Amino acid sequence: MPRFATIDIGTNSVLLLVAERTAEGRFEAVRERAEITRLGRGVDATRRLSAEGMEATLSVLEAFAREARELGAEDIAVSATSAARDASNGAEFLSAAKERAGVTVEIISGQLEAQLSFAAVYSDFAGEAAGPLLVLDIGGGSTEFIFGNPAGHVEFRHSFDVGAVRLTERFVRSDPMSSEDRARIESHLRDTFKTLPPPPPASGLVGVAGTVTTLYAVRHAIDPYDAERVHGGTLSVGELTALADRLCQMPLEERRALPGMQPKRADVIPAGAIILLESVKALGLDGCRVSDRGLRWGLLAHRFGAGAARS
User: Fold this and answer.
1) pLDDT in tens, 32-59
2) CA-CA distance, 264 to 47, in Å (whole number)?
């Protein structure tokens, strides 16, 4: 079976997916990897990618591209999102990626990012949804909301410039987070999300990306991380409220030691928890499902699915 790879370069992390395309057109994962490199560190304030963030990301990109080729990937699709979109020196990063890893990085729009995340979730959860499917993709620099109908057509999508890294850098001044810092984040999110339209009746919400999966892993002390135990799980508003309270009141070193926590994500997870909680509240829902399959899976189908192969 032919093998293909996608690499998703986010504001906070880089994710690799190598998968086989079956005769039926489905994809089966051969390997998945993730590394936190913080490409977007400081971008909110400076509008530039830092030398440290670029070097850490390029090093991982080189390793992931080499690994994909060693596993027999015929082609590699690489996307970059919020940090690269916002940075004035994004072209410098793209050139270095081509030179060092031999890949072409596509900086995708927030709208395409939302579409690809929805496609990944729809393929897994559409059969379980009683009504329309909503997708929430929380990244380091931005958060995407996507509303789709039961037939899989996107009816609303929007990318907001609020992410776990961006809000931590903008608002958090103490460790643990002060009540004043938290109040500023909550106020900013409520003001940002007030433009969201009400979701269709009987909607089901699915959250994707590292913030959501990490919160579920911490809630259930899943250590080491196990995608099969995380994917398809549920987080209620009550659980999210308790998680946000706990994480915001806990010093960084204690957060790093929590079972289920990626240590490099511990500094931004309180802001991420608040984003998820305020998102669910803004939609008027009582919780969300959890997906371990996000943009990298949507990009795989978009670039290498049966329809793409014929084009």
Assistant:
1) 999 999 998 888 888 899 999 999 999 9
2) 22
